[in-house]
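Q: What does the predicted 3D structure of Sodium voltage-gated channel beta subunit 4 look like?
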Amino acid sequence: MASVDSTGSSVSGRLRSGDLLHAGLAVALLLGVWTVGGLEVSTGKVSSIEAMNGSTVLLPCTYSSCIGIENLYFNWQYNDNGTLIKLCEALIPMEGVEPKVRVFHERVEFVGSSKSNNISILLWNITFEDEGEYICFARNPKEKNRNHSAIFTLIVVDQMKEVDNTLTVIIVSALGGVIGLVIIVMVIKAVVVHVLHKDDEKNKECLVSSSGNDNTENGLSGAKNENKGTPKA
């Protein structure tokens, strides 16, 4: 009886460990799906821009979710030395439905579209006071209110920096010179080959003509000798 009990307990222990293993795999799979399909917002490959005082700049932001969206909330905020100032906000009911955006800043204009997952804004007639960090925030209730944000930095200057193209000009000139030299060498080579080919043809013609003349002269001399050697009747 003792052996039966020990066997039964070992079997039940294996079953429990197997259940735990399956449960762990299921949790890991769910976490993996959650990570892959989670809401993300992005301001693009470049997270900052330099713009001239008085100009208009685009503050880019897009969102993505493999699971999809439902009542997606988003807003733009400006970080004023630690104090977040809300510039605009809106709710996107579902994919493809354009949001009704509430704008709280007179120089801000929403230029995005839910059809392209775009929630970008324009900032008109910027001043030096507009310099700083702008935060694009989104929250998706369909993913248990998962939220994500991205920061875009605006740098305001009084004049744009002149780009020194000296190195570029030197590189382009050097490449142009090399390419030109290669073309000249190829042209010279083609001319030399053509001239040598013509000389070979002339030499062949000369050899053929001289060989023909030699054969003709030999034939004539042979005929004369035969005529001289024949006695008169």
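A (community wiki): The structure tokens above were generated from the sequence. Confidence is low (pLDDT under 50) at residues 25-35. The longest strand covers residues 146-157.
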